[in-house]
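Sample intake sheet
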Amino acid sequence: MSRTSTTTAVGALTLRPLDPLHDGELLHGWLTHPKSAYWMMRDARLVDVERAYMELAADEHQQAHLGLHDGVPAFLMERYDPVHRELVGLYEPEPGDVGMHFLVAPTDRPVHGFTRAVITAVMTELFADPATRRVVVEPDVTNTAVHALNAAVGFVPEREIQKPEKKALLSFCTREQFEKAVSA
């Protein structure tokens, strides 16, 4: 199912389920781009990206969505259950916790406010599920740009954690924190 969130500043943002084979080449270009270094797939081959997203699509505890900006692919959103993926054993999950990753496609023509509009649309999508009480993220501790974006939509850092692939900043955003941040 896709929902559309329209923002006056950037246009229509729509999410649709990712098709690993149909969207694989597009994603490969995004994930191997130098601006996507924090995704740690710079050296991935097309088949590696397709395989990774086919595995994700087959996993009942994860979903990936392609984000469209006025109908054109522009971002990626991943949703996961932190009880079963990514953060197992690294924190005590609460009922209603949902994990999230997002990636804005690299571009040579950035639109002012676009990334903020994307994370707002992603959070709106996650909180559209009444079972979602809190969104959990674990960006690299050195990714200060995403820390600022996360703070802008209500995330509060809790602590640094060591994941197998990186040192991460575990942060949380409740529905109330999100609503307060975006209405300010």
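Comment: The chain has a mean pLDDT of 90. The first helix runs from residue 24 to 31.
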